[in-house]
Amino acid sequence: MKVYLAGPDVFLPDAVEVGQRKAAICARHGLTGLYPLDNAVDLAANDASRVIYAANEAMMIASDAIVANLTPFRGASADAGTVFELGFMAGRGKLCLGYSNNIWSYTERVRRREPVKAVNDGRLIDAEGFWVEDFGLADNLMIVHGLDVHGCQLIAPRLPPLDPWHDLTAFEACVRLAAERLAPPPKPKPRPAMRAVRRR
Amino acid sequence: MKVYLAGPDVFLPDAVEVGQRKAAICARHGLTGLYPLDNAVDLAANDASRVIYAANEAMMIASDAIVANLTPFRGASADAGTVFELGFMAGRGKLCLGYSNNIWSYTERVRRREPVKAVNDGRLIDAEGFWVEDFGLADNLMIVHGLDVHGCQLIAPRLPPLDPWHDLTAFEACVRLAAERLAPPPKPKPRPAMRAVRRR
Prior knowledge:
Two copies of one chain form a homodimer. The first copy, chain A, is an alpha/beta fold. The first copy, chain A, has two domains: 2-102 and 139-194, Rossmann fold (3-Layer(aba) Sandwich), CATH 3.40.50.450; 105-137, no CATH class. Chain A is 36% helix and 12% strand. In chain A, β1, α1 and β2 (32-34) form a beta-alpha-beta unit. In chain A, α3 runs parallel beside α5 (141-150). Chains A and B meet through α2, α3, β7 and α5 of A and α2, α3, β7 and α5 of B.
């Protein structure tokens, strides 16, 4: 069974090594991890971004599940490319699993980045006047409940990992779940009545 | 034909009015615009966020196309919920259209928010050492090429609109395209040879 390994990990300085570690964890659980090809393409080529898109979409279509790293990236929410891929797999009815190595709620992260205030009806609004979702969720409700409906609740550690971009504990928990859910059903035992009986 | 109207517009103070304006534009083009229900749900209810998710997913499944407002929201990228929805519709093979009322590239927006520098291999990296995609695209390549493959190139104005959250020019361009693409094929003309000829 194949699992698409989505996440902003592809933007890390050691992206290739992280991908190899993730693929090795998948292999230990009997799965094949497919890692996005952003780093295996000639970035100077004119059509580099199209080639990456086509390769990633083909890998998603070939996969039975997605494990998405939804740790917030360059803002209060998960990486936009990863979120597109999670939506894509949910839309195709594939098994969707995700983790975040950030322990705070979306609301809390917005609050730490900009002034947020409560208005008359109890809603929170940001500096520009936009409503700030305040459901105590780890990210935008479409992401969090997309996981609930199409796979399993978002997995996050209780305490912030020392190195959120290299700690793969929550990732491995997702892979373990994927292996359980994707395992082929056990073969039916042969019925005793059908056993050959030697005649005397 | 139904069109799902995705975007962070649901977080605007005048979200309901913006939704009504968008639906009216759809109606003028012969389409039914379905606007997310974030604002039609009792937010104090325990399961409010789940109810919103379920309603939005059902509307997406019922729709023939999505028109996504991908104007950057609380960061350098589009709103995470909107991006999930775009991916969901692409995964289902629906017609995907999107617009942004921001005229800058993703790279330029990241550069304006934090220090970015070029490293030896020519790649740009941000303050945390993450690679910054530098393809001259309006957002993450999965979003931009997701539109190319599943609908049409992202639509954006040449000059920044005076009010990017209320200017619906680019939105209407998407709706026009959706109407053209979703229009039923013209009925074949009756063949002249089949025309009844009155006998004398």
